[in-house]
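TICKET: design request
STATUS: open
ATTACHED STRUCTURE:
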């Protein structure tokens, strides 16, 4: 069995937004013009979208991905999660 991977909050927020709108992964891909695989990666928190992709998601779906990423990063920085762990060095 594989290691458990934490899904970032911004990704969970995006997934919940899509579920509430009744949008499947394929529908999100079709509406935004972003590939199915990349949308799946964003929904699972595997990849972070770049600025231009965040803007496209906001313009087409109405989800503010930039705000979700900002708030997630801010929370991590304030909690000290981004500081290097000695065991990682």
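STATUS: resolved
RESOLUTION: sequence designed for all positions
ATTACHED SEQUENCE:
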């Amino acid at each position: 069995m594989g290691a458990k991977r934490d899904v970032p909050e911004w990704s969970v927020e995006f997934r919940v937004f899509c579920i509430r709108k009744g949008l499947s992964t394929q529908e999100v891909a079709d509406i935004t013009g972003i590939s199915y695989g990349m949308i799946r990666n964003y929904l699972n928190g595997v990849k972070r979208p770049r600025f231009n992709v965040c803007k496209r998601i906001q313009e087409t779906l109405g989800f503010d991905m930039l705000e979700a990423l900002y708030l997630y990063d801010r929370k991590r920085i304030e909690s000290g999660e981004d500081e290097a762990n000695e065991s990682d060095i």
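CLOSING REMARK: The helical segments are 9-21, 25-32, 36-44, 51-61, 65-79. The CA atoms of residues 81 and 87 lie 14 Å apart.
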